[in-house]
Amino acid sequence: MEVIIRPDKEKATELVAKLIAKAVRARPSLVLGLATGNTMEPLYSKLVEMHRKEKLDFSKCRTFNLDEYVGLEADNRNSYRHYMDEHLFSRINIDRRNTHLPSGTAKDLEKECEKYEQKIKKCGGIDLQLLGIGRSGHIGFNEPLSAFFSRTRVKALTPTTIAQNSPLFDRPEGMPKRAMTMGVGTILEAKRIVTLVVGDSKADILAKAVEGPVTSMVSASALQLHPKCIVITDAAAAAGLQGKDYYKWIFENEPEWDEFR
Ligand code: F6R
User: Fold this and answer.
1) Residue 259 located in a structural domain
2) Number of domains in the chain
């Protein structure tokens, strides 16, 4: 795992946007794994800006989102399909048929999850997976005690996650208590992973994920097992990291990062 600490949220977000843009330019038909949430909103704005100003071309890209709430129709303004359309898909030149999220209203949710896994496989797997980390330590909606070999399935959300996300709902008490999510095993199969974590509310959980023991009590700690995972963070979220100075030294001295410094 490689940890890169940028001075603030804007710089961390910009670096992730540049990495994604570089990957899309290198492989226009990139299979991109996407996340939702507060952290990703400025990132998607940045990608939209790069599309408009630098002609970043998404026309051949294929995308798979990590998760969707059970019971919400695609056009519900709190669904993740709606979030993606609003923040990214409707603002870039992606072919909507190439954008995938599990359907939270499928009649047979288990079958829908299996179909989702098959679709990912058919596209050749995820080239670059974008992740955030929740306060419960989740990636996607893999709450504590998710098996590291888990695949796309329905998960019950924890009180920590309900407290984190319910303020985003028109009626906080109406937030679904279950979601469909790629499994930890699905995520770990991505060829590359970029994780963006910002803000002081994530400092404790980031330290556990990056430097703590690998444990299913913190799903994000499974990322330590991935051969090509980068965590990009800001000074506020990095405050609890013991290796802060060491990560900084590596970033400053690694020639591979020259173009990003
Ligand atoms: C959502 C997802 C979640 C979020 C996490 C952080 O698709 O995958 O794991 O990345 O809950 O959310 P924010 O950015 O709102 O703190």
Assistant:
1) no
2) 1
* Tens-place pLDDT, residues 95-152: 999 999 999 999 999 999 999 999 999 999 999 999 999 999 999 999 999 999 999 9
Q: Is the CB of residue 13 below 6 angstroms from any atom belonging to ligand 1?
A: no
User: E-strand spans in the chain?
Assistant: 2-6, 31-34, 62-65, 67-69, 99-100, 128-131, 153-156, 178-181, 192-197, 229-234
Residues with Cβ within 8 Å of 260's Cβ and at least 6 positions away in sequence, in order, are: 15, 18, 19
The CA distance from 198 to 97, in Å, is 31
Ligand 1 centroid distance, CA of 253 (Å): 31
Q: What is the mean pLDDT of the chain?
A: 97
Cα distance between residue 56 and residue 186, in whole Å: 28
Check if 39 has its Cβ closer than 6 Å to any atom of ligand 1: yes
Q: Is 258 a domain residue?
A: no
pTM: 0.98
Q: Read off the CATH number of the domain in which 17 is found.
A: 3.40.50.1360
Between the alpha carbon of residue 3 and those of residues 35, 51, 209, 224, the distances in Å are: 19, 27, 11, 11
Q: Which of the four pLDDT bands, split at 50, 70 and 90, describes residue 261? A: confident
36 lines ligand 1 (CB under 6 A): yes
Residues spanned by the domain of 217:
2-252
Mean pLDDT of 88-92: 98
